[in-house]
Amino acid sequence: MKRLLFLLLCCAALLPAASHASRAQDKKGAQPAPTPVKHGGKIETKYDGVARETVVELKRMQVTCEMGKGLESTVKGVCVSLQVSLHCPGQQLDYVRHATLRLTFETKDWDMRHPLDQRDLTVVADGEVLRLGRMRLAAQAQGVSDSWSATDSKETLEAQIPYQTFRKVAQATSVEVSVGRTAFQLRDKNLSALSDLNNRVNLASRQAAGN
Predict the structure, then answer these.
(1) Is the full-model pTM beyond 0.85?
(2) 184 within domain boundaries
């Protein structure tokens, strides 16, 4: 009886220590919640039942405007905005079929529009030149600001590019874009938004690689 009582007392003494160690281990293994990236852009994920694909989209975001200072560009009198969407077949985010890039140009000078032979898209990402073909007029200029008068020229061009090419751009620290004779450089907030957009997809492969 004395031996049984002694064993019970020992177990009772060990239980608080074991409980404390378990709580400490759980606290150590807990992963902190990811800090939201502050770039000013808006990213949305939605499923398109008609196209049967999941679309992760960076909504229209300003790149540069005539009021911007300190930016090397050839877009005087032109406001440029970008919009990017990643297209994933089905209801998943681990495989991206392609990316769609939209550029909106707003200007008071109709001569600043891009005729057919001035729509070739070239991107320089960290010094690597990527020639992405000819852009086309977007079917619907969604998200274009109505703050300018109806007499202003608003032109939205779009191009479909491979996801691997988009990923190079999203991971770059310096990106220059040219469409015909119009050239401009993406700002830090644009680069952060593209990186954030890219981080919303390919989650499984990134976790497997330890990134």
Answers:
(1) no
(2) yes
